[in-house]
Amino acid sequence: MTDGTDAFRTEVETKVAAEFGTERDAERVADAAVRLRESEGVEWSPTFIAERMADAPKRDSVPEKWDWLLGYVGGPADAEEYRLAE
Asked: What pLDDT score was predicted for residue 86?
């Protein structure tokens, strides 16, 4: 893993944890975001990820908010392998 990937993962995790207050879920989102970035070349900023997840329904869990974001954007990002909700 490169320094750029580590920095991206850390920034996503920090922003999601700050927005939603759940470290473990923030780690899962960051891991999924890195996989998506590396596999599909999706270049979302950590700020975009946290802000769009905040647009998801308020009652949704953090994994559901991430899945909502994938559906919102669509395309290669909206694949089962990147979803987190159970």
From this structure: 75
In terms of C-beta density within 10 A (0-12 exposed, 13-18 middle, 19 or more buried), how is residue 62 classed? buried
DSSP letters of the chain?
--HHHHHHHHHHHHHHHHHH--HHHHHHHHHHHHHHHHHH-----HHHHHHHHHTS-TTS-HHHHHHHHHHHH-GGGS-GGG----
Which distant-in-sequence residues (6+ apart) come within 8 Å of 68 by Cβ?
A: 53, 56, 57, 60
Q: Is the per-residue pLDDT at 77 higher than 70?
A: yes
With CA atoms as reference, report the closest residue to 38 among 15, 64, 6: 6
The pLDDT of residue 23: 93
What confidence category does residue 85 fall into, taking pLDDT thresholds of 50, 70 and 90?
confident
| pTM listed for this prediction | 0.92
